Every structure is written in structure tokens, then in C-alpha cells.
Amino acid sequence: MKYTLENLFGIKDEVIVVSGGTGTIGLELCRGFVSLGAKVGIIGLFPKDCEAAVESLHADYPGADVLALPADVTNEQAVNDAVDQIHAHFGKIDGLVNCAGINIINSLSAITMAEFNKVMDVNFTGIVICCKSVGRYMLKAKKGRVVNISSLSSIQGKSYYTAYAASKAAINGFTRSLSIEWAKKDINVNCICPSLIVTDINRKQLEQNPESFQKRVASIPRGVPGRTEWLVGPVVSLLSPGSVHVTGQAIFVDGGSSAGDTFVLEEKRFAEQDS
């Protein structure tokens, strides 16, 4: 076999649906996809955000083939309608990337069940609905790639993040189970687990608590927070032919955080050595 970057990692002319594609992470992934020649169908919550996403992508990539449609990912009929329109427009769907997400930070005693369920519905049930909806076309085609955006919180507990962590852990379990169910259909299902990235979800909180933010960054082995553009490569890899035998995996893009912490008992001694 002759190996080329294109036959290993090329996604040119692939049609990729991105739920939550108007958000910080989703829109950056869309930029990556269209820059590599893919066609993108965006599902966003608000019509104005969908319009803004298309305008932004066309400004940077004038020839990009992009369709953005508003739909609440927790509404199965709305998602089905949007996916049907995307399929009708492009004629196929090759990949699905699920990025829609929210967070409500509070203690378990203070968070209402309505708030807890809202986080679960958007972060987890929304992924289930999008997979069911896009899966209708992938199962018929016997071909597809699914990438769910999870989080380091899926394996690491954090105070006041009970709803968020539970929703992300559910994504990982769902990803593994669905990957087995669809494996012989040539549909791969994986998830990406980032650590701290400044997004629209957490930006205000981080800006209001700069000291805590710096402590959090210091706990990351690489010593820097994640960036949305650092997710593009891993996601593109999972969408591409080179990952044909990779399924059911949770891939941590976290600067080493899932490998261990940065605590050193003899900090002064090793700081002198490292200098």
C-alpha cells in the first residue's frame, strides 16, 4: 500500500454534521474541516448564531460548502428535521461531531433537579438524539464516523460539577456501547476528552476568579490551558480513513492531566534541579 496524507487523514468532500457547531469548540472544528475541503452541516440552537457561523466561515473560506440550521438537540423531531435537510442538501452524511454542551455549577444540595436534568439533557441526551438521527443515514450507507466531545471530568470528580461530570461520564459509556453495536456496520464511534479550555461556557467564571484559574493551569502537566485549535487534529484523525480500526475509545486531549497530577513533595529541591 502506498501511504499518503490524503489516504490516511484526508476528509476532502466528506460531509460532516456538527451539533453545537456555533459554539466555541464546534465552530473551530468547523473551521478545521472546511479548511481541509470537507462540507459541513451545522446544528445550532439559535438562528442568529447559525447565520453568524456561516458568515464567519465564508469570510475565512469563501468557497466553503456550509449549511447551518437551528435546532434544539434535546428535541428529537427538530433534530430529525435538520438532519434530513442536511442530507437532502449534500446527498450524504459521512461524519457526526457532537459538541453541544452547557454547565450549571452548584452544590448538589442547591442545584434544582430541573437544572441538573437540563445539563444531562443537553450534554448527554442531545448526543443520543443526534446519533439516532444521523445514524438513520449512516446505517443505510454502512459507513460513518462519530466523534463525541466529552471531558476530563468524565473520569475526574470535581466539587460542584456533579451534573456536568455525570453527563460527561454518561457520554463515555454511551460511546463505548454504541461503538460495539455499530462496529460491523463500518461506523466508528469515539470520544475526545479535553481538559480546561476557555469557552463561552466558562469564560465569565474564569475571568472573575483569576487566582483560581492560575492554580488550575498549574495543575496541568504542560502548564498551559487547552486551546480549541488543538482539538482539530485529533478529531480529524478520528474522522479519517487512517482510524478505520479505532472505535470505542476515549482520547484525552488534556496536556497530560489524565496521566497524573503535578504535585511534588520536594518541590524546592526539584525546582533547583530543573533550572
Entry keywords:
about 280 residues
Q: Care to give the gist of this entry?
A:
With 275 residues, the chain is an alpha/beta fold. Helices cover 46% and strands 14% of the residues. The protein has a 7-stranded parallel sheet with strand order 3-2-1-4-5-6-7, with helices on both faces.
Largest sheet: 7 strands, parallel
Say how many strands there are: 7
Average pLDDT rating: 95
Strand content: 5-15%
- Number of discrete helical segments: 10
Give me the strand/helix succession: HEHEHEHEHEHEHHHEH
Stretches with pLDDT under 50, minimum 5 residues: none
Largest sheet, spatial ordering of strands: 3-2-1-4-5-6-7
Q: Gyration radius, to the nearest Å?
A: 19 Å
How far apart lie the N and C ends? 47 Å
Principal-axis shape: globular
Structural class based on helices, strands and sheet pairing: alpha/beta
What is the helix content?
A: 40-55%
